[in-house]
Design a protein that fits this description.
mainly beta; four-stranded antiparallel beta sheet; two-stranded antiparallel sheet; 1 helix; 5% helix; 30% strand
Length: 115
């Protein structure tokens, strides 16, 4: 498990449309070796822009309810977060297949607690 205290802040270097998913974008960060997957806002606009600061919470980090509410990751009806674990408050990786046909698992897109 990653060190749950190792929260990092990165500057967004650029955004591009995901080549095979209408509701996703690929986020490039300065000083980070991979692209991260981010969903678009409900109106279809990009969630992040070049120059934005993005917080990456490590896999395994547990986030408090007030932070989940502030980030829009709290389901008030269910009374739990929308992340991993039975309480929905744990950061977990989400891997997306490389839809470009490259079978190399290192080339898959991933999302790792970008907020």
């Amino acid at each position: 498990m990653s060190d749950p205290t190792a929260v990092r802040v990165y500057e967004v270097a650029g955004i591009r449309v995901h080549p095979h998913a209408d509701n996703l974008t690929l986020v490039m960060l300065f000083d980070h070796d991979r692209e991260l997957v981010a969903n678009k806002r409900e109106d279809g606009s990009f969630r992040y822009s070049a120059g934005d600061l993005l917080v990456l919470y490590p896999v395994g980090a547990v986030l408090p309810q007030d932070l989940l509410e502030e980030m829009g990751a709290w389901d008030a009806v269910k009374g739990k977060g929308t992340l991993a674990s039975n309480r929905g408050n744990r950061v977990g990786p989400r891997k997306f297949p490389n839809l470009d046909g490259n079978p190399d698992p290192a080339e898959r897109y991933e999302s790792r607690g970008a907020m």
